[in-house]
Amino acid sequence: MATAALLSLIITVALDITEANFDIIWNVPTFMCSGSFGLNLTKDLLKYNILVNNKESFVGDKIAVIYDYKMGIYPKIDSKDGDINGGIPRLDRLEKHLKIAKMNVSQLISNPDFSGLGVIDWEAWRPSWDYLWGPLKIYQNRTIKLIEKDNPSSSDRDIESAAKDLWEETAKQWMLRTLQLAKRLRPKGRWCYYHFPDCYNYYGKDHPSQYFCSDRTSSINDRLSWMWDESTALCPSIYLHEEQFEYNKSQQVWYTFGRLAEAVRVSRPQTKIYPYMNYLVHKSRVFVSK
């Protein structure tokens, strides 16, 4: 679930590693624990120079995460509920989305001088056609059907090519204009999409280079230059999943380095990088050790 995905720490990576300084932002809604059990986690967090929202809120002055269901009319296909907001992104619904998203952002982040990190968490689909695999292939199939309906005599190859173009342009407009809206409303904040860029480097073995982004992945990420140009932050994930705990320590380091290296590669000179890391093994209750 997306609502659990960001219960984590965020580390700001200094692009000049010789400075060896970074920030840690607490992105866990511990206000529930503090309120129920009389804890004062803020005091402990500040002791270790960890940045934390006022009252340990999930949306606050240091960081504000906005999930898809809280921002506009984000379209997606749910395995249980079916089509939500039309299922797939369409340009004829974008203006309505932006109108509603404007109200949402203004309400969620009420301070017009917000200067923290704004994270848009859209995970139901990806803007790159080639990465709509597994459960996400349904977005390819639905887009192909749209093209087939208007071009019944076209070849399968031409239909898929047109579907790819339609998907990537529509997804781009939805993500780009939503990001531009957030920046316009809260211009002092730093804005990113969670989990971008990705590296898909899950299958390395016994050499560091096997954990770098493949040339194909880097090429596809290069086609998202509009996102890197517009983002004022990058928020890749360096979560360790259960399969990464089959790696030895060196492999875990290589895996993490590969993902960070891709973020540094696509980043623009003034863009800060905020990798998401979790103190739990992803989707489990097992704590990550040192």
From TrEMBL:
<dbReference type="GO" id="GO:0005975">
    <property type="term" value="P:carbohydrate metabolic process"/>
</dbReference>
<dbReference type="Pfam" id="PF01630">
    <property type="entry name" value="Glyco_hydro_56"/>
</dbReference>
<dbReference type="InterPro" id="IPR017853">
    <property type="entry name" value="GH"/>
</dbReference>
<protein>
    <recommendedName>
        <fullName>Hyaluronidase</fullName>
        <ecNumber>3.2.1.35</ecNumber>
    </recommendedName>
</protein>
<dbReference type="InterPro" id="IPR013785">
    <property type="entry name" value="Aldolase_TIM"/>
</dbReference>
<keyword id="KW-0732">Signal</keyword>
<feature type="disulfide bond">
    <location>
        <begin position="199"/>
        <end position="213"/>
    </location>
</feature>
<dbReference type="GO" id="GO:0004415">
    <property type="term" value="F:hyalurononglucosaminidase activity"/>
</dbReference>
<keyword id="KW-1015">Disulfide bond</keyword>
<keyword id="KW-0378">Hydrolase</keyword>
<feature type="active site" description="Proton donor">
    <location>
        <position position="123"/>
    </location>
</feature>
<dbReference type="InterPro" id="IPR018155">
    <property type="entry name" value="Hyaluronidase"/>
</dbReference>
<keyword id="KW-0326">Glycosidase</keyword>
<dbReference type="GO" id="GO:0030214">
    <property type="term" value="P:hyaluronan catabolic process"/>
</dbReference>
<feature type="signal peptide">
    <location>
        <begin position="1"/>
        <end position="20"/>
    </location>
</feature>
<comment type="similarity">
    <text>Belongs to the glycosyl hydrolase 56 family.</text>
</comment>
